[in-house]
Amino acid sequence: MKTSGIGGQAVLEGIMMRNGSKYAVAVRKPDKEIAVVEDTYKSLWSDSKAAKLPFIRGVFSFIDSMVLGIKTINISADFYAEYEDEDEPSEKKPERKSFLEKHFTEEQISGVIMAATMVVSFLLAMFIFMMIPVWIASFFRKLTDSNVLTALIEGLLRVLIFIVYILLIGRVKDIERTYMYHGAEHKCINCIETGLPLTAENVARSSKVHKRCGTSFLLFVMLISVFFFMFIHVENIGLRMLSRVVLIPVIAGISYEFIRLAGNSDNPVVNALSKPGLWMQALTTKEPESDMIEVAIKAVDRVFDWKAYQEEVFGSGKKSSHTKTGVEEKDFPGKDLQKKDFQGKAPQEKDPHEEDFHEEELRERGLKAQKRTPRSRKRVLGSERDSQTQTETFEFEKK
């Protein structure tokens, strides 16, 4: 099976889809229109040969995904900040520039904020998912001398903390909707990779789990770490914690290679090993609403020629079954959800009022968030009226 190579992530009320260096962020704005931002992303390691080596490239890819992820989340947040600004009373106040605004450019400030966010997020993740399990597992060392058993306990605690974390943040309404957009992203990729036309109905009936998902990657990092730490015996708890952090790049590199293999293989053994990651995705993906699927399709259309891909892989007029990705329909609940939402609705033409706006025109329309959230980028926005889609009949890029 040849993977499509596209991937993405859910953002605030929208989806980012990436194909190579191109990415598009589609957002459902408060006025129910869809805005699309298109741009290109140059990898931080694009000129490095080491970043292309197996078992090393995974680390660089993960960092790139974090950088682009934070950037696109900020893009989606801009649209909601714009409407908050418009709701505030229009009082003319003298503009006061901060110290940073006086001495640094907007692009430099944006880079510093993004770097600080990444560092804080990394440190927090290390504390929650690495330090705490090591500390709790250390109490069991008083009961057993088996390094294998304590490593298993530590790994079990790490997975348990991860699951509890996902469940807790999933109770927040905005995060729950993000999980729904995450499901829409997977459904679009699965729809394409199973040879079905990218229509709302076909996307709705596709699987919401995918073997190349970042959730699977994180789970495999935790599972593979158990085997590494079985053979590393360190008495001092401080050095033991340090060893866990130092080995993260190695473990992440191995996990990335497996996810990459799984996304390009229908081997029964690989599919079986992928099951735990698919089960975990039941927590991070939910069945999307029809308007969320519409947003996801918009993002895909801007960065990927899915018709050319299907012509190359499946040939003219051929369709594959829904088990091509190794994801059986029984692996995900709610596969029939929303069929009623699309039955009997004729296809609608593309909104003739949809058009692309340049940055200068956006300023004329009073979108103030660009001033509040410094960013230097080329933006192309598309908006279309909220409409019901589509027909009569009815997975991460390398995250």
Descriptive tags:
alpha+beta; 399 residues; disordered C terminus; single chain; 15 helices
pLDDT below 50 for ≥5 consecutive residues: which ranges? Answer: 320-399
Number of domains: 1
Main-sheet strand order equals 1-2-3-4-6-5
* Estimated radius of gyration: 23 Å
Write down the overall mean pLDDT: 79
| C-alpha geometry | globular
The biggest beta sheet is recorded as: 6 strands, antiparallel
Q: How many beta-strand elements?
A: 6
Strand content: 5-15%
Distance between termini? Answer: 19 Å
Number of helices: 15
Q: In sequence order, what are the helices and strands, one letter per element?
A: EEEEHHHHHHHHHHHHHEHHE
Helix/strand/pairing category: alpha+beta
Helix content estimate: 40-55%
Question: How would you describe what is shown here?
Answer:
This protein is α+β, with helices and mostly antiparallel strands. The protein has one domain. Helix content is 54%, strand content 8%. The chain has helices at residues 57-87, 99-103, 106-138, 147-169, 173-193, 200-204, 214-230, 237-246, 248-263, 268-284, 290-303, 306-313, 339-342, 359-364, 369-372; strands spanning 7-11, 14-19, 22-28, 34-40, 356-357, 381-384. It has a 6-stranded antiparallel β-sheet. β2 (14-19) and β3 form a beta hairpin. α1 packs across α3 (106-138), α4 runs antiparallel to α7 (214-230) and α7 crosses α10. The longest helix has 33 residues, at 106-138. Mean pLDDT is 79; it is low at 320-399.
